[in-house]
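FORM 7B: Structural annotation worksheet

SECTION A. Query
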Amino acid sequence: MGSENGTIHTILNRRSIRAYKKEQISNDELETILLAGSAAPSGMNGQSAYAYVIQSEEFMNELVTSVEKATGIERNPFYDAPTVVIVFADSSKFSPVEDASLAIENMMLAAYSLGIGSCWIYAVKQFFATEEGKIFKKKLGIPDNQMIIGSVALGYADGKQPSVKAKEHKFYKKF
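SECTION B. Predicted structure
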């Protein structure tokens, strides 16, 4: 169903990737993914979502170590992805959580359409709630009025894409 439509195919087939090759995605691919995120709808056109890209080894190592410590996760919480996009939103806007969540979804769909794996990483919320997380936020120059929403691991999948699993419940009910 919908396989002849590229957009529907992307929506129905994108899956979270949890193993990445070390190879960095290209700048053109990253810019396209970020452009898709910025094109997401936002409540009352508030455009509250902001993306912060981590690719440097220094920042990535600090982020990975800090998130592991904050969450108790004993492996790289970003699954060794070479790029992590951390998404914050301006808390003074009408719908910051929804705006940033839509931006994250747009980025993951764009990544899939470009042959790039992605996974929403929620563990950053725990990290940015810690004192160490607040220091890291300042180090990145993120304003105090921006709240953490989540992050997206991006990279070329190392292995096969997970298969589509059957839903445990019916998503909708018609009246």
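SECTION C. Observations
Residues 17 and 160 are 9 Å apart (CA to CA). The chain has a mean pLDDT of 95.

SECTION D. Sign-off
Analyst initials: ____
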